[in-house]
């Protein structure tokens, strides 16, 4: 099976429209899918008339084909070369029972081809198909333009974005998050509902931090696996002034955490990063968390489970690592800029000049010598998608906010992992975050994927999603 998954393709047809429209559409859509290297499952032209879906028998045949490939189909593309049969499309999806995103495309008519031999009426047919999908309780995605030709460059972008929506939905419905340790006592902000997450297919696997530290303490610097992980860490980032003893501690902890991830087949983790770790073990876990996030196994600090859920969703949407950050400081008197900060666990993709260091703020309470393992580095200018998923227990819902801005190269003289963000109407966003009880943690991703996340989280996951705009 292709790891990216395949699209099921339904080509709608209605018998009193020209047959050649269906044949042409089938060839044109397949050509576009193959051009974009997208695998597809579609009826053969011998299975039904021209490989289209019109009658209930056609729907049965197409549904059977989809069922046979259910494990690889991540979404369905509905193609309407003419008005199409509204029931045929809906019945195919209902019989197949795939529960995947559906993109509805309709062909445009040409003004000089509105005679009986060449007219399509797809504009009207799309409305009817969507009406039936709505009646059947099937969720679907619309193209930005009501009708669009498959060879239109804009449709290529529609397909790429739709596949990203499919990745997010498929990934979240089978997500497994490891929660390592208890949240820091002073952080009510990261409390969440496991039960609400489980209702949406998201499982949380817990482990006591003492178990992790106990296993790490039983390892020695002479163990081959510790040496291997130490080599990996040294290859990942400059050690700076980190002492040998601290590097060994970091490597041993890296071994055990990776074993925990592998043993439980986890996709992401959220870790109790202070203060028990520093007091009882003598280092920070940031370096390991950074490596995991860089390797697309996002890891959030302070046992922020819905924070790492947000990281994973953004990662699926963009195909690149995410980072959990604090909405931390104003940037001078610029109302649309702020400082994003954390002690030091961002993926290396955000830190081109990364160095293993310590955590001065945390060090004031646990001793700086016990905080080696935090990373130091500045994030350069890039695109920015930001957002946060949270469980709202009083309302019994999962909610989120998302938006886009930019990361800038503005001067920033401080330590840790740091960035400057510019967000239109930032003050309005902060009003929304505070009034709706969101956490001080937010996730950043170097992409422009807010629209993809809005469609995936809101339409398909059924969550309450706010997308921030300059005018909001």
From TrEMBL:
GO annotations of cellular component type: cytoplasm
One GO-annotated biological process of the protein: fucose metabolic process
InterPro entries: Fuc_isomerase_C, Fucose_isomerase_N/cen_sf
Isomerase keyword on record: yes
A GO MF label: L-fucose isomerase activity
Domain called L-fucose isomerase C-terminal: residue spans: 340-468
Protein name, UniProt field: L-fucose isomerase
UniProt source species: Olivibacter domesticus
